[in-house]
Amino acid sequence: MRQFPPDFLWGVATSAYQIEGATRADGRGESIWDRFAATPGKINDKSDGSVACEHYRRWPEDIELMRWMGLKSYRFSVAWPRILPEGRGRVNVAGVDFYSKLVDSLLGAGIEPFVTLYHWDLPQVLEDQGGWPARATGDAFVEYADVMSRALGDRVKRWITHNEPWCISVLGYGNGEHAPGHKDWTKALATSHTLLLSHGKAVQAIRSNVQRAEVGITLNLTPGEPASPSPEDADACRDFDGGFNRWFLEPLYGRGYPMDVVEDHVKAGRIPSASLDFIQDGDLKAIAEPTDFLGVNYYSRAVLRSNRIPEEKNAPRTVHVRPDKTDMDWEVYPQGLTKLLVHLQTEYKPGPIYITENGCAYSTGPSADGRVHDVKRVDYLRTHLEACSDAIGQGVNLAGYFAWSLLDNFEWAYGYEKRFGLVYVDYATQQRIPKDSAHLYRDVVAQNGLDVEQAA
Ligand code: FCB
């Protein structure tokens, strides 16, 4: 048995737009994802989040599933357009009530709410006024953080400001794969800055409203490995790691923005010059506001091969991407999680770390016996929990693990094609069926440990 520390926070994660549906109910305003999904060609299966898992109505059933799994905590996000349909100003009481009831019921079920404020559903009106590249959107976010922490702060102690600033800035404003769909790297960099700045300011706002608050941010971190020992591959790896990981970690931990990343952007022709004129006096200090934990979303690693020299001139590959891949085409590589956690702990000393997302997409559905035998997900879960336990063994202060996701759901630009849930959702009937992975997770939580003999 691999035992986890006492008080280890076992949970699952979801986000509002991916599960709630009811996008027009009770005064909710339009979000950038409503607009983006309604734009032809943006979502692979032409779907949107208007129905999703009908969690807005079925949440008591979903809490029951979590209670059955014995979970200690639930990470969910609040839909900003339900709270402030115009982005700022008027508070929509019905929206606040929805989350307030959810929180009360979670607490009643012995499940601690872990709230993410921004999981990608910006009110469309704020996008119309300039979106995340505009500092005013950051100010609006801090006001929203203030509203929510006042409303729930008597019951919610753990808060995440933003989920995955890399995705919001690069996919949303750089390459346009996500809402709002801009392709402008100057905007992407300005977005990352507004996000980090508003994070730092929101930490302060939440702390002033919530006693014993624990506040942090969630980053999607992907460790890079050079495909060979050549200097070119080492440089490709530096470049990747810079844009993906260091660009966010370095300023958050008081080291400012890594300038090699800016130079990479200039060299690649993504931005015209290295001037970062969106940074103002005092910003870097505000971004580096100390936090209570770091949230880490881990899915895979990246193996980097230089494209600056021809393949035949580069050194032979010594690191190969393994053939074992999920439906996202992401390599299954649990060792990368251990390596990442140890690196974070030694390099940045972030205090407690939570894995705020980890999981895999496999399409496995119900068998003739009515159960969902998601063998590959069971394996993914096991090996990644072992990787967590290895990291703890190496001194990492890992305080909890949140599986992505409770339910199959709307996977952004992929629509409903990719199933990440521990619980299967039949979208025609909205029936929920716990997969074998949910049963495994239930055992793990009950034992506060992973039975390794059983796997062998
Ligand atoms: C992360 C997102 C989450 C989900 C998973 C698969 O990037 O935070 O909403 O889409 O990936």
UniProtKB/TrEMBL annotation:
Signal peptide: none
Domain of life: Bacteria
Listed InterPro entries: GH, GH_1_N_CS, Glyco_hydro_1, Glyco_hydro_1_beta-glucosidase
Chain segments annotated as transmembrane: none
Gene Ontology CC: cytosol
Organism of origin: Corallococcus llansteffanensis
Broad EC category: hydrolase
Record-listed substrate binding positions: Q18, H119, N163, Y299, W404, E411, W412
EC number from the UniProt entry: 3.2.1.21
Protein name: Beta-glucosidase
Family of the protein in this entry: Belongs to the glycosyl hydrolase 1 family.
Active-site residue list: E164, E357
GO biological process terms held by the UniProt record: cellulose catabolic process
Keywords noted in UniProt: Carbohydrate metabolism, Cellulose degradation, Glycosidase, Hydrolase, Polysaccharide degradation
Record flagged with keyword Cell wall biogenesis/degradation: no
Keyword Phosphoprotein on entry: no
Single GO molecular function: beta-glucosidase activity
Catalytic activity of the protein: Hydrolysis of terminal, non-reducing beta-D-glucosyl residues with release of beta-D-glucose
